Amino acid sequence: MRRRHSGENVILLRLSPCAALYGRMLCMSESLLQALGRLFAAGASELRSSPRVALQRLLLLRALVTITGTLGALIFNYFSPLQVPLSVILVLLSGIIVSLLAGWFQVQRATLIGQRTVAMNLALDFVFLAILLAYTGGAANPLISYLLVLLAVAATLMTALWAHAFALAAMVFYTVFLLIGINTDAHGDHMMQSFQVHLVGMWVTFVVSAALISIFVNRMAAAIRSRELSLATFRENEMRNEQLVAIGTLAAGTAHALGTPLSTMSVLLADLDDRTLDNMPPEELKRDIHLLRQQVMRCKASLDQLTEFYHQNDPQNPGRISVRAFRQAISDYITNIHPSARIAFTVEAECDRLYLSSDLTVRHALINLIENAIRAAGSEVQVQYQRDPQTPAVLLISVEDDGPGIPAHVMENMGEPFISTREGNMGLGIFLANASIQRLGGQIEMFNLKDAGARTVVRLPTVTGVSGDVEQFTTAD
């Protein structure tokens, strides 16, 4: 800019350092705003979830701004011909420290912290900033942009009424500082008047920004809070539904397991009804009574397992069990219930060192698959445990029979409810087994063998860690 007389030189010499410092401080202010924005973005969900956490964040924000502002004032005093009133800064700093200590003690106390407490602390930040601006340039101080940060915090944390109230207060603060500055420099030269026009433009931008923040940011924050509440409700419902599905699956599996002993008892009772006790040999009568007692114990054990599962099972954290204990419980159950069946259990040595996420529903599922193979087998059933060659963290359980295989029309719909290869059967066994195993991240594959028979492969993911108490299947002697 050309200098036409000495008076202008004096003004330019006074304004040029101020303009340079203004630019540097504006850059510092923008960097501070970006850092604070990242701070609040990182903890936005926490702020919306708890007024206590919101107050903690506000206190942290106040402390960071205080430290940054104090360092900025010292640097400004050292490099600038203009001097910041350090006495005012020290008094203000003392008040901020007292407020931080009071707020910290309030956070540590067990008393309830509501939105009004957060609003009062936010209003205190407005007051501290207003006092600082009153002694350090008012509307010409770049730190006045920090009002937008406080407005963003208010719009995020507060209801619409509080957000609008803070926006109106910020506009009033800015307007008062602007009018004071304009009236003070009303008789300045052309350069000063241009600077005043710049300040007015900043004021207009601030008013528009404050209005947008108080309206749209507040609405977006409310929408996010509503969405998070809906997600929390959805997660709770999912956990509840998962529990109900697990219980329902086991209940259906229990009902399915009760079919065999009930059918046995029905046949025995019908036979006893057709015959007179006097004509029955004592040994045969004793054997039938013992068999009836066995079937009753099987029914009771199944119902006891259902009750135990209801009281102890957590679908989100299924129990862990070693493969050794898992397969031993299943083989003991099958051998006890089907003593005449020819079943060959084979296992790779290293499999016994693995652990599974398992509960009663998974063991019921595998037992059901083995019992289906026993019914379909011509002579023998083979059950094999091995690690997946492609995925060592997966356990493969193969159940193979030498029966007629699975009919094509049944294979197409296998795994759906009410599809069965046996006439008069409900067809829920495979469906329940598939649901139980898929719930823990596994899957079932079924296919017919080339010569004869069928093979069912169960894939179960293994886990690390040591099992707790191992649940066993209660069986009748």
Detailed description of the structure:
- The protein is built from 13 helices and seven strands.
- The chain has two domains: 233 residues, no CATH class; 160 residues, 2-Layer Sandwich (Heat Shock Protein 90).
- Strands 1, 2, 3, 4, 5, 6 and 7 form a seven-stranded mixed sheet that branches.
- Helix 1 runs antiparallel to helix 3, helix 5 packs parallel to helix 7 and helix 11 packs antiparallel against helix 13.
- It starts with 5 loop residues before the first helix and ends in a 14-residue tail after the last strand.
- It is an alpha+beta fold.
- Strand 6 and strand 7 form a beta hairpin.
What descriptive keywords fit this protein?
477 residues; alpha+beta; Heat Shock Protein 90; seven-stranded mixed sheet; 13 helices; disordered N terminus
Structural class: alpha+beta
Number of DSSP helices?
13
Shape field:
elongated
Note the gap between the termini: 107 Å
Quick structural summary:
With 477 residues, the chain is α+β, with helices and mostly antiparallel strands.
What layout of secondary structure does this protein have?
Blueprint: H1 6-42, H2 44-49, H3 51-79, H4 86-108, H5 115-135, H6 146-157, H7 160-184, H8 190-274, H9 282-312, E1 320-322, H10 323-337, E2 343-347, E3 355-357, H11 360-376, E4 381-387, E5 394-401, H12 408-411, H13 429-439, E6 443-448, E7 454-463
Parallel strand pairs: 2-4
Antiparallel strand pairs: 1-3, 3-7, 4-5, 5-7, 6-7
Helix pairs in contact: 1-3, 3-4, 3-5, 4-5, 5-6, 5-7, 6-7, 6-8, 7-8, 8-9, 8-11, 8-13, 10-11, 11-13
